[in-house]
């Protein structure tokens, strides 16, 4: 059946929306100093920010997978009371301003924080303004993306396979490892990609909780912010790198989201 034409009253606002979203990205590509791209990307500050961003985002993703997959299972499969409240708490970082998240982390893990004071007195370890603080801040804002993705995959998975494994004598841990995880592996992968991309672009919580020290806590978004004031060309190149990462993320998820939308 042939699809109806788009009404003109909808077509004009839609075209304006596309222009509003695409033109800034096109402007970034137009203003990119392509002839100096290699030189700017190999500058010491840029290289440090790039390496730190990739390492910290990867570590934040690993932590999110280790902690977030079990949490998603509890939300999707457990019958414990208070799951609705727990789900609401898990999704708070999605809507919470990142700067507020950084302040909250500082009040808990700072030198005078609820946990940070005890940690400093007992072990002499302080977390704020370190690379560890960068990973913690990125994990805080990015983990909900993975949890929501995996929870959705668990809810969509056919529970009969798990029931069959249980009837064959498998305990719950074996069923989780050998049956549940393979079933939701695409959801875990998609959530991990989203989590990594969100961690890579984190700014507010990082600068509040970890500071902005080159080579230690200065990630790419922070480097873009500073470079825009001192070296706009370097800021454009760093922004281009983040744009490429974002497009690559969409390409990795195209079969899960874009393909599903096209099929609909």
TrEMBL record:
Q: Which GO terms describe its molecular function?
A: molybdate ion transmembrane transporter activity
- Which parts pass through the membrane? 52-76, 88-109, 129-150, 179-199, 234-253
This protein's GO CC annotations: plasma membrane
SUPFAM superfamilies per UniProt: MetI-like
Q: Which UniProt keywords apply?
A: Cell membrane, Membrane, Molybdenum, Transmembrane, Transmembrane helix, Transport
Provide the ABC transmembrane type-1 domain boundaries.
50-253
Q: What does this protein do?
A: Part of the binding-protein-dependent transport system for molybdenum; probably responsible for the translocation of the substrate across the membrane.
What is the name listed in the Swiss-Prot or TrEMBL entry for this protein? Molybdenum transport system permease
Organism per entry: Geodermatophilus saharensis
